[in-house]
Write a structure and sequence with these properties.
mainly alpha
Length: 189
């Protein structure tokens, strides 16, 4: 099978697609409430749709067609940090957008790579902030209104619950596999 043929998606690609799709949609709604009054223009809305609606499906599609889906997904998590870092910096670091997004990217990477993964995400976010500062200047506008802040809290809660549910499911699958292995060993003896 070559790398371009479709195969059954790796569990990591499937899990992250679900989380990325739902949470990115929640972040998009939050961005809409934050920027609606400012009328940021067509380019902004097009980029937001590409990032928060199309991108999760593109990452999934690529992850289902690569020879090493887990490696591709780890690279996608790094790309998430960079891209989301660009959004955070361009928006001026609004706290209830920046915090849930930053902690979510760090947790997503830490799930697979431990502290090194969290550090990679933080570095990705920082690199993005430096790029924005170098090209457009750095601005700090931390305030969000009550609706946007509440949606940030909701997005973070959704993310944490999805990750917990996925971890629980993987734990159950591991227990079942171990029980089956033990049962198979006993039946051979």
């Amino acid at each position: 099978m070559n790398g371009l043929e479709q195969r059954s998606p790796h569990w990591m690609v499937r899990m992250n697609h679900r989380v990325r799709t739902l949470v990115f949609l929640a972040v998009l709604i939050q961005l809409c409430t934050h920027l609606w009054q400012q009328s940021p223009g067509t380019t902004f809305w097009l980029l937001a749709m590409l990032q928060f609606v199309l991108y999760p499906h593109l990452v999934y599609w690529l992850g289902t067609r690569t020879q090493n889906p887990s490696r591709a997904e780890l690279w996608a998590l790094r790309l998430d940090a960079l891209l989301l870092g660009l959004w955070i910096a361009c928006l001026g670091f609004p706290l209830w957008i920046a915090f849930p997004v930053a902690i979510g990217t760090a947790i997503s990477s830490a799930v697979y790579l431990g502290a090194a993964g969290a550090l990679q995400s933080v570095l990705g976010l920082l690199i993005a902030a430096v790029v924005v500062a170098a090209t457009h200047g750095l601005r700090f506008q931390p305030h969000t209104d009550l609706l946007t802040s509440s949606l940030g809290m909701l997005a973070l809660a959704l993310y944490l619950l999805l990750v917990a549910q996925s971890a629980h499911k993987r734990g159950q699958q591991l227990r079942t596999a171990r029980e089956n292995l033990r049962r198979d060993r006993k039946s051979v003896v």
